[in-house]
Write a structure and sequence with these properties.
By secondary structure, the chain is mostly helical. It contains 19 helices and no strands. Helix 2 packs antiparallel against helix 3.
């Protein structure tokens, strides 16, 4: 008889990967995401080596994630009116070119922290186009009844890469330096881009709708739709506020590793892997539920758990305890992220899916960037512990707001699709 853990793993992954296109798509994504996490670890460590400044590490994280503020809404509208496969390929090609440039400049000794900031802005802009384009393709890979499993599998495999990538990056950086770790991102992105033409996507799913108005008008339409939706608007606002307050810690880990625990690149990789292990286990459990009911409650309560784990992470002086707290942070953040994505994908109409998912991209990229910038700057003036605890307490206040509105949001987002039309 299969163990409970085996049933949890087999359930969502077997359903999501039971189709040819989903296997191609997620297999290529796993390679690209592994390279991406190697790149993030390499770039964060490179920024720390170049500057020895928590503020600069925060700025580099901000450069990669912040372009989503301006780019993501337009990218979502674009994903609703152009060929999503081609948009994904083009975006991934730009990311690969940026990684190759950073690796080359680092290997030849010509990289500076200012140049690194500019190049990460380029990569972050391209990623802001790639994310909504990719996510709008997920419903085309599987039947509707398997969409929650596919969304969960997407997040699970991201966290598998988040576990594998930092471990590989730490070993590569220790043995050969930063440049080879960043080069792996270029290789992964090229492979993912070249795999896209193998997908057999229904032409109607490759493009959201015929062009009926200007790109700006369609972008604003997406904002208005979410703002007026009694379920999507509050849950995305809740996620945005808590991401600013809590996600910055994961974006500027090198200063925490060195200043709080006196450790180096290998410990940075180990700590990042702990985030990933927690996220992976939590994601498997959430994905195994197989139902929409209760998803909003998970999204809301995961935030108070993440806040508590974040306080524990900075309060301890013990690295093993910090690793445990990191796993709990990863678990709660994953439960929240998967739940919000499932709710958003389920509520989204096909014609607006790109714009709705671009707002999720805005939350998942730009908000952590703002948090990283704020924590890095405050950390230089006040130390890392006090600003982090203050941010966690702010997240608890946002949790209380979300809890008071939970029943109303759940009624809007967890009803069967036919009832919401």
């Amino acid at each position: 008889m299969a163990s409970p853990f085996a049933r949890i793993v087999a359930g969502p992954l077997a359903r999501a990967l039971g189709y040819r296109d989903s296997r191609i798509f997620f297999g290529a994504s796993l390679g690209a995401w592994t390279g991406l996490w190697m790149h993030r670890i390499g770039v964060a460590w490179l920024a720390w080596e170049l500057s020895r400044s928590a503020a600069w590490v925060g700025l580099i994280a901000f450069a990669d994630l912040a372009p989503a503020v301006l780019v993501s809404p337009v990218a979502g509208a674009l994903a609703d009116r152009v060929d999503r496969v081609r948009l994904t390929m083009a975006s991934q090609a730009v990311i690969a070119a940026e990684a190759l440039t950073v690796a080359s400049l680092t290997a030849t000794g010509h990289i500076t922290v200012g140049l690194l900031f500019a190049l990460e802005m380029v990569s972050g802009s391209a990623a802001s186009f790639a994310q909504p384009a990719r996510q709008t393709l997920i419903p085309a890979l599987v039947p509707r009844e398997d969409l929650p499993a596919a969304v969960a599998a997407n997040s699970l495999l991201f966290n598998v890469a988040r576990f594998i990538g930092p471990g590989i990056a730490g070993a590569v950086i220790a043995a050969w330096g930063v440049a080879p770790a960043i080069l792996c991102n270029a290789i992964g992105q090229i492979f993912a881009s070249l795999s896209m033409p193998w997908l057999r996507i229904d032409p109607e799913q490759r493009r959201g709708h015929p062009v009926t108005s200007s790109l700006l008008a369609e972008t604003l339409e997406g904002f208005r739709y979410v703002a007026r939706h009694p379920g999507l608007g509050p849950i995305i606002a809740f996620s945005a506020a808590t991401s600013v307050l809590l996600r910055g810690v994961q974006e500027i880990l090198p200063p925490y590793v060195e200043r709080l625990f006196g450790r180096g690149a290998e410990s940075l990789a180990a700590l990042t892997a702990c985030f990933a292990v927690g996220a992976l286990v939590s994601g498997l459990v959430v994905a195994s539920r197989g139902r929409l009911g209760g998803t909003t409650r998970i999204a809301v309560f995961a935030i108070v758990a993440q806040a508590a784990a974040t306080v524990g992470f900075v309060a301890t002086g013990s690295f093993p305890v910090a690793m445990l707290c990191a796993a709990l942070i990863g678990a709660s953040a994953s439960a929240h992220g998967i739940s919000v994505q499932v709710l958003a994908q389920t509520a989204a109409s096909p014609a607006l899916r790109g714009r709705i998912m671009s707002l999720w991209a805005l939350v998942s990229r730009a908000c952590p960037a703002l948090g990283a910038l704020a924590l890095g700057s405050a950390g230089e003036a006040l130390g890392l512990r006090l600003p982090t605890v203050a941010a966690a307490l702010g997240a608890v206040a946002i949790f209380a707001w979300g809890l008071s509105r939970l029943p109303r949001i759940a009624r809007q987002l967890e009803r069967p699709k036919e009832e919401t039309n």
